[in-house]
Predict the structure.
Amino acid sequence: MNARKCLQGPATAPRRQRVAPPFGDRPQDRLLPISDEAIALLIDVLRRPKSSRYEVVSSSRPDTNYELTVDGQDVVCSCPGFEYRGKCSHAGKLASALASGGDLPRGMKLLG
Ligand SMILES: [Zn+2]
């Protein structure tokens, strides 16, 4: 028996192994189920231009148009209501339509 072997301890000592937990046992493996529809909607949102403009006819003044600007998740409208309150039905309806992937609200059109 030499000195080196004594430092390693008895030959019968259990060997420790590092074994990664099986897939599914780690916290990062537990992902929520995501539907294909949700992924398609996300892709659609990410593909949109950063900023786009829409036009809507005023319901109270048919000769007046307001312009809506969409920048990311922010929707800004040029109507007096939005300027006063920071929100309006035009911006709310457009945001909902864009979020759901549905048709544009009635009387609203994309300018570019
Ligand atoms: Zn408005």
In short: The mean pLDDT is 83. The helical segments are 3-7, 36-47, 80-85, 89-100. Residues 60 and 79 are 11 Å apart (CA to CA). Residues 66, 77, 79, 81-82, 88, 90-91 surround zinc ion (CB under 6 Å).
